[in-house]
Amino acid sequence: MGVSLTTVAALRAAGHDAIHLRDEGLIRLPDPEIVAKAVAESRIVLTFDLDFGDILAIARSEAPSVIIFRLRNQTPAAVNPRLFRVILDCAATLARGALVIIEDEGFRVRRLPIRP
């Protein structure tokens, strides 16, 4: 949600099976349905929307992994290098289920399910 088509194109160019909800005409899909779609398709959700962390915490689910961007600069030039660093550094954790928050200073990882 809110991730640039340019970022999706960069992921595809790097060999990742990335889709954008806009590509499928689903730009207005409610957040819980995005989560269900990601689980069904074994995808990672990329978003600027903090609500996804709450959805995972409430559901106590083990999937999908979600990467949330909390960056001052939200352009692909700022997002993409950080995203690719997280993919490289956290591939195994993302495959098992994680919430990753990418911030200007770095990133934080919480394994799923999130427990209070």
Write the layout of secondary structure elements.
Elements: H1 5-13, H2 31-40, E1 45-47, H3 51-59, E2 66-70, H4 76-96, E3 98-103, E4 106-111
Parallel strand pairs: 1-2, 2-3
Antiparallel strand pairs: 3-4
Helix pairs in contact: 1-4
Estimated radius of gyration: 13 Å
Distance between the termini: 25 Å
Mean pLDDT: 94
- Helical segment count: 4
Structurally, the number of domains stands at: 1
The string of secondary-structure elements, in order, is HHEHEHEE
Instruction: Report the structural category.
Output: alpha/beta
% residues in beta strands: 15-25%
Based on CA inertia axes, which overall geometry fits?
globular
Q: How can the largest sheet be summarized?
A: 4 strands, mixed
Number of strands: 4
Strand order of the largest sheet: 1-2-3-4
Tell me the helix content: 40-55%
Report the uncertain regions: none
What can you see in these coordinates?
This protein has 116 residues and is an alpha/beta fold. The chain has one domain. The chain is built from 4 helices and 4 strands; from the N terminus they run ααβαβαββ. It has helices spanning 5-13, 31-40, 51-59, 76-96; strands at 45-47, 66-70, 98-103, 106-111. It has a 4-stranded mixed β-sheet, sandwiched between helices. Strand 2, helix 4 (76-96) and strand 3 (98-103) form a beta-alpha-beta unit. Helix 1 crosses helix 4. The relative contact order is 0.17. The model has no long low-confidence stretch (mean pLDDT 94).
